[in-house]
Amino acid sequence: MMDAEVMRAALEQAREMVLFYGKDGTISYANESAETLLSYDSGLIGHNVLEIYPGVFRDRDGVLELNRSLELDGFTMDAYRENRTCFPTVVRIAGSRSGADILLAIDISKDVYLERRIEHVDKEKQEASKVKSEFVANVTHELRTPVNGILGNTLELKEMETERAKLRILSLIERGCADMNAIINNILDFSKLESGKFTLENREFDFREMMDYVRSNHKIKIADKGVDFIVSIAEDIPRRLIGDELRIVQVLNNLISNACKFTAVGRISVEAVRTDLQDNRMELFFLVADTGIGISKEDQDKLFQSFSQVDASISRRYGGTGLGLNICKQLVELMGGSIHVESDAGKGSMFSFHIWVEVPEEELEKLGQKVGRVGAVMPDLAAGLGGAASFEEFQRENSVNIVMTYGSPENMEEIKRKLNKLILSAEMENWEKAEGFVTTLRELTEQAPKDIKNTALRLKMAVQKEDYDKTAQGVDTLRTLLNQEA
Fold first, then answer.
1. Does residue 320 have a pLDDT over 70?
2. For residue 13, is it left (φ>0), alpha (ψ between -120 and 50) or beta?
3. At what angle do helices 324-334 and 245-261 cross, to 10 degrees?
4. Are both 371 and 350 inside the same structural domain?
5. What are the distances in angstroms from CA 259 to CA 265, 287, 438?
6. What is the pLDDT of residues 109-121, one digit of tens each?
7. Which of 78, 107, 136 is a domain's end point?
């Protein structure tokens, strides 16, 4: 008796609907969940289960049968209330010792609703992504057209113009157009990567010619800042490789441009080594190290996020959209690799990444490797880092903290060197190089007294106007102030 009471209490408290019915389908028992969900005014007992599940049963000469071949251990079917509204359930049918059949059903209305909601949200997301991609493509196209028009007209005017002042303005317009095109390309690449429509174009290319191209892209601008620039390539990297040359160059250009942007004194080192060979696939390891402003440990996680920069002041001072490193990360991952950073605030940075490329069969033969054989080579970082085997050693050997600290002997000596190079560039009318030196001077005097900082600012304005007299006067004034400080 006790067992029956316990069983009945369990059935009444169950969330599942429980119905007992005879051979003709007449319900003899319904638990509380069934009574609540099906909402029969007079109760369910005495009604036929066929009224609730017409899609499950059929009446054959007074005997209830399954309407079709259904899995007795669970199938989905709508349950009908007395007012003929319905809701989805998962149904199971079992027999009892008394000979009555038992129907167990779980209300899955919420699950079905959530599933449909998720499908709807996914559909909206896909449509929104499509609209966004089309919008970005259209906008970038519309922007690129006038920018290229301005650039073309500027280049034509430069060929006709002879006045130095006007040529300088035209050069600034040309540089602005180039910057705008770079931003447009970044936005377009980011949009393609986010929408999953970006594909690599792997083809055979000359690796050393690619690295020479990268070096030539940056050597003049870096030299204009008075920063050393070293590019090193391991001898065991084959000359011919198969991969997306354009995207490898894009990653390297971005990292080197950032190094140049954030490095006022010291050096920038680029290293390329081979780290692994599996069948005809080769892993290449690249690093770009600099002695620039560096990044604090807590801010390094922000670097590879889209539209993110370490500090808002960085964007104001140096420019940029915050997309470059995120694009680099996604491109490197598409090429089977990953990208990392080691840095300390004020002590420089080292970005490293590895990718996989294919090696043509003739190059494998030159390497003395056969397809199918696995070889591995550890990177010799010392070659590109000037003898340093780690970033810590690179920092120690190339530390610029003392140089950037105003008033230190090293700082004063570096300022004097930059002043000499600045006035020499001005005398030779190489104003672009002079602007690089005066920009570095402003960074070297960042912590200086107000009169020195103001003089450095006026000196930069004179250089930008290509005014030799005011530039020479500014250099003399700055030297006098520095001598007074000493």
1. no
2. alpha
3. 150
4. yes
5. 11, 11, 18
6. 998 889 888 888 8
7. 107
